[in-house]
Amino acid sequence: MADDPTEPAALTRDSLLFVDDDHFERGTVALVTGAGSGIGRATAVALAANGLTVAATDLDEAGLDGTIEKADDLDADGAIEPIVGDLTDDEFLERVVDEAAEFGEVRYLANIAGLQHIDPVDEFPVEKFDLLHDVMLRAPFVLSKHVIPHIQATDDGVGAIGNMASIHGHVATQDKVGYVSAKFGIRGLTKSIAAEGDGTLRAFTVSTGYVKTPLVTNQIPDSARERGISEREVVEDVMLGEARVKEMMEPVEVANLFTLGFSKHGRHLDGGDLTWDGGQLGTY
Fold first, then answer.
1. Lowest-confidence range among 69-73, 151-155, 227-231?
2. Does any domain span residue 230?
C-alpha cells in the first residue's frame, strides 16, 4: 500500500509521557512481555525512560537488543534487562519473575505479548486457538500468580498488573475467535486480581483499536483474503471504518497508558479498563 498508514512514527522523548512518582526509580522493576517489538518495546522504553528497571522478555533476542538500543538512544534514566524465553513454558514463567527480582523490587507487570490468527470458527485450528490462549491469557495468569507475592512483600504493598486487552475484549469481529475469546478472558482475569487486591495492589486493562504494530500489519493480507477485499479496504473500511479518529494509534501512545496506569496517578484505576479506541465503541 502506498503511503502505508500502518507504519509507526519514530519513538522520541517528546512522544513519551513522564510522570513524577517515588516508585519510578532503578530499584523498582517492571516486567514487560512482548518487549522485542511493537507495544511491548514502546512500553519497555517508556518505563525505562521514567527511571524504572525493566525486565524485558521476548522470544526474539534480536528484538530485545533493538529495544535496549532504542532506550539508549533516548538516554533513558532507568535500565532494560533482557530475558529471552517462551511464555508457553511454565518453568520459564516462574524463572523470569525470579530473574526480574534480582534487579530490584518487582512492583509492576505488563502483559503485552500477543498473537493473531485469521480463520472462521469452523476452520480455526485448535492448536492455534490453544497457542493464542496460552500466550495472551494463561501466561498472564501464571505471571500474575508469581508477581503478586513480590508486590505484597514490598514495604507498602504498592504495585500493579497491567494487561493488554483490545476493543476485541468488548466486541467481536469475524474470523478472530482465538484472539477475541482471549481478550474477553484477560478482562475477567484483571477484575479477579483487582477483587483480591487490597487497593494498593491494583490491576487494569488497556483496550485500544488498531495500533501500528507487526501484529496488525501481519493480519491484513489474511483479513483481505477472508473478506474478499483489498488490503487498503481492510485498513480503511474494516479497521478504521467505525472509528471517529481515522488513524491507527502509535505504539508509544499505548505505552503511555501503561505508564499512567502504573503510576500514582492511576491509583483509582483498579479492575477498570483504559479504552482508547478513537470513538469506535461508543459512537455511531
1. 227-231
2. no
Q: Compute the Cα dihedral for 56, 165, 185, 173 and give only its sign.
A: negative
Q: Nearest CA to 14 among 75, 65, 79?
A: 75
What is the span of the domain harbouring residue 189? Answer: 21-209+249-276
* Residues that are catalytic: 179
Grid cell at residue 242: 467505525
Tell me: the pLDDT tens digits for 73-97? 999 999 999 999 999 999 999 999 9
Beta-bridge partner residues of 206: 164, 274
Say if 39 falls within a structural domain: yes
pTM: 0.93
Tell which residue, 245, 262, 157, 255, has the closest CA to residue 203: 262
Contact 29, 53 (CB under 8 A): yes
Work out how many domains the chain is built from and give that number.
Answer: 1
**CB within 8 Å of 89: residues ≥ 6 apart:** none
Q: In what order do the strands lie in the sheet with 79-84?
A: 79-84, 53-58, 28-33, 105-111, 159-164, 201-208, 273-276
